[in-house]
Amino acid sequence: MEKNERPATHQSAEQATKPFTDKVKAAEKADAQAEANEESIKQAKSLIAGYTPVKSTPRGQVLDYADQTRMQTEWTKALNQAIEKKRNCKTGRRR
Prior knowledge:
This protein is mainly alpha-helical. The protein has helices spanning 13-49, 65-91; strands spanning 54-57, 60-63.
């Protein structure tokens, strides 16, 4: 070794694996977020499907199938638009 030459530096094991572990952590976080999103979508669909409005008639309380169909269709459409908007934001596409 020459007099003014710097000694070779060695990375610690932590420094050497940091880029890899950062990518793994980011992927795990993304997977957890995707799973949470899927659960939220399932829950929203379940709530929409469970909507059973009633109306009063001379015979008593009955299900209002017209309102049920109309509202379920409207809410499902809004949910699908929100899902598509979120997908477009992730991919960077805009309409």
